[in-house]
Design a protein that fits this description.
Elements: H1 3-40, E1 43-49, E2 52-58, H2 63-69, E3 79-84, E4 89-95, E5 98-104, E6 107-113, H3 119-126, E7 135-136, E8 149-153, E9 155-166, E10 170-179, E11 183-187, E12 192-203, E13 206-219, E14 224-231, E15 255-264, E16 283-285, E17 296-301, E18 307-315, H4 318-321, E19 327-330, H5 334-340, E20 342-349
Length: 351
């Protein structure tokens, strides 16, 4: 083999080796680049956003930074839950906020919530407390949903005790212990007391129920007893008996005159009146123009407290003629006339 041919062969070997080294170097560079990239993106994250699922590679460990890297915006009321494991895999879930309404205490207002928040959490977020007896339109354990309307009716129960009067009754009786025609209170009436305990239920300030818990008479009423007197007073004059009805009024009379009657007496044993007839217990002085002499009458006080009885008009006097008094009754003594004094009387003119 000639020298020229051997040099050509050696040159061919050198070129082939050089090309092999270049290819090897390129392969090493590519592999190195690939390995470096894999080390740079050391976490594989699954992002779940409503119905959308995204898989990303990142070296960030903060979920909000990862979302920002992938241009995923998060609202103020959205909830982000991240589970970033140390083995390079992880998951980020975004729960998007929506609006629910709360109606309570006379107002309706919106609150933002997510599907993982219960009604109880929403109320707490809104600063709304739920009373023991309050009525809520949805259970507090129910999870929120978009468009949910939560209505709260405030319930207030008030227990009150009231005392009301029980009016006393009145009983009327007759009694011979009292003078005829008089009215006397034997027993004073006293109102009783009824104590009632009741519960009133208010819903949003309006009465919806009233329930009597207990009702009892705590003080019995006292019946008032009124007695009408039936006792007939003994007549001062017994000159003649006159038939009377149950009320002490003559059974037969033509008319009745009402007026003031006084009494008088004489220091003489035997005396005659202006009519010329003798005066005694059973005669009385009159204005003869009103009651003629000789008129028979029955005289009793208008309140029935005193009874003069049968009398005959037989005398007169200045006070009678002047119309100051209607009758002046003759008495047996000065003391008797003083006892009579003056009374308003009914003079029944007998037939």
């Amino acid at each position: 083999m000639t020298i020229r041919k051997r040099l050509a062969e050696l040159k061919q070997v050198i070129v082939e080796q050089y090309l092999g080294l270049v290819v090897f170097a390129v392969l090493v560079a590519v592999i190195s680049t690939l390995m470096t990239g894999l080390m740079f993106f050391n976490s594989q994250i699954v992002i779940r956003d409503d119905d959308r699922t995204i898989r990303v590679l990142t070296e960030a460990s903060d979920p909000y930074e990862i979302l920002a890297e992938n241009e995923i915006a998060v609202g103020e009321n959205d909830i982000v839950i991240a589970d970033l494991a140390e083995d390079g895999e992880g998951e980020i879930i975004i729960y998007r906020a929506f609006e629910v309404t709360i109606t309570a205490d006379g107002r309706t207002f919106p609150v933002y919530a997510t599907e993982i928040e219960s009604v109880e959490v929403i109320l707490d977020k809104a600063g709304v407390t739920l009373g023991e007896d309050d009525i809520i339109s949805v259970p507090v354990t129910e999870m929120s949903a978009e468009g949910m309307e939560i209505v709260i009716n405030r319930v207030k129960r008030v227990v009150e005790t009231k005392v009301t009067a029980i009016p006393f009754e009145t009983e009327h009786i007759t009694s011979s212990f009292y003078k005829r025609g008089t009215t006397n209170i034997v027993t004073e009436g006293v109102d009783g007391e009824l104590t009632t305990t009741a519960e009133t239920t208010y819903i949003d300030g309006k009465v919806t129920a009233f329930n009597i818990i207990k009702s009892e008479v705590t003080l019995e009423p006292v019946t008032e007893v009124i007695a009408t007197g039936t006792a007939v007073q003994k007549p001062i004059s017994t000159a003649k008996e006159v038939e009377l009805d149950a009320n002490g009024v003559p059974v037969s009379y033509s008319k009745v005159l009402t007026g003031k009657a006084t009494a008088y007496q004489s220091k003489y044993t035997y005396v005659k009146g202006a009519s010329g007839k003798p005066l005694y217990v059973g005669t009385f002085a009159v204005d003869p123009n009103i009651i003629p002499y000789g008129t028979e009458a029955y005289i009793v006080s208008t309140d029935g407290s005193v009874v003069y009885g049968y009398a005959v008009a037989a005398d007169t006097g200045t006070a009678l003629m002047d119309g100051i008094i209607l009758a002046d009754l003759f008495m047996a003594s000065y003391s008797d006339s003083c006892k009579w004094g003056a009374h308003q009387v009914n003079i029944y003119i007998l037939d």
